[in-house]
Design goal:
This protein is α+β, with helices and mostly antiparallel strands. Helices cover 34% and strands 26% of the residues. It has a five-stranded antiparallel sheet. β2 (78-87) and β3 form a beta hairpin. The longest helix is centred in the N-terminal third of the chain and has 23 residues, at 29-51. It is globular, with a radius of gyration of 27 Å. Residues 4-11 have low confidence and may be disordered.
Length: 179
């Protein structure tokens, strides 16, 4: 065993609990206590941070492509973060596109939309939905038209952002298109 950094504190005749061989440890009983209680504090701190999500903090950036908690049958669907902006009242707004979905749409040939080019969402939405970062991509050029329409309405106080999971947004869009 490597010498302890507390070896200088070792004294002959140190009193230690039965079974603790100080000669092998190369340190006094109190040094042993200090080291083990420090380790316990470190483990406890890491556990608490992990429990409250600080250790698992995720940052979301433009160009990221993510897998997410999809609807049944859309497991290959992905989310692309096209644009990130900050609003004074709402905080960070993420403008996403969703690809490889199967949204019933009676207004198009084939009756199925495979891509939803623009949704303004909160960080809460991303935290509830995104599973794994799988790559990077250029922004979806089709998102710009939806973004511009949303931005005009948002600036006029007539639009907001989604705060529910992405799978629920897709269901809402499908229900709205079907009416």
């Amino acid at each position: 065993m490597a010498p302890s950094k507390y070896k200088h504190l070792t004294r002959k005749g140190s009193i230690a609990p039965a079974g603790l061989d100080l000669a092998t440890l190369g340190r006094c009983f109190w040094c042993y206590v200090i080291e083990t209680s420090l380790m316990k504090k470190i483990i406890l701190t890491m556990s608490l941070l992990s429990m409250f999500g600080f250790a698992n903090a995720v940052e979301y950036f433009e160009s990221q492509v993510w897998s997410y908690k999809t609807r049944a049958g859309e497991e290959k669907s992905t989310v692309l973060i096209n644009k990130v902006e900050t609003d004074e009242k709402l905080g960070i707004i993420y403008h996403i596109s969703v690809s490889d979905v199967k949204v019933k749409n009676p207004h198009i040939d084939g009756g199925i939309s495979n891509e939803l080019p623009h949704f303004p969402v909160s960080e809460e939405t991303l935290k509830k939905s995104l599973v794994k970062l799988i790559g990077k991509s250029s922004p979806n050029p089709d998102y710009v038209e939806g973004y511009n329409t949303w931005k005009e309405a948002f600036d006029a106080g007539k639009a907001g952002i989604f705060t529910v999971p992405i799978s629920e947004i897709i269901g809402f869009v499908e229900d709205t298109i079907g009416k």
